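Work Package 3 (structural annotation) set out to generate three-dimensional models for the target panel prioritized at the project kickoff. During this period the team completed the workflow that converts sequence records into discrete structure tokens, so that structures can be stored uniformly alongside our sequence database. As a representative example, we reproduce one entry of 127 residues exactly as it appears in the project archive.
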Amino acid sequence: GLYSGIRPTLIAIAPFVAVQQATYDVLKLKVAAGFTPSVPLFLGCGTLAGIASQLAVHPIDMVRRNIQVSGSNEPHRGWAAVAHQVSRIWRRDGFTGFYRGWLPTVLKVAPSVGVSLLARDAALGRL
């Protein structure tokens, strides 16, 4: 249905933002100490934060995508669908199955996170 995969989506939001912000803040503090603060430097910090946050939540995204692709063929609903897809991914591909498609996702997410964090810091006068 329209809301298939909503549970994993909601579960992934908080860790994504937490890892993104924590990584960005730590990188800015550590990296800025050794270099002159600049737009490219902070853009790089934001991009690395995007990579780290996607790495943290990609397994949840895989479960969400599998639920959404299954659509009406998914024999389970709600949390049972989540558990079913986790089990299915594990049986089919093991641990690496949860990171299938990670690189293309990172190539999409990381630059947008970098630009977004840079724009936010610029708007707040933090550069």
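The first helix runs from residue 6 to 34.
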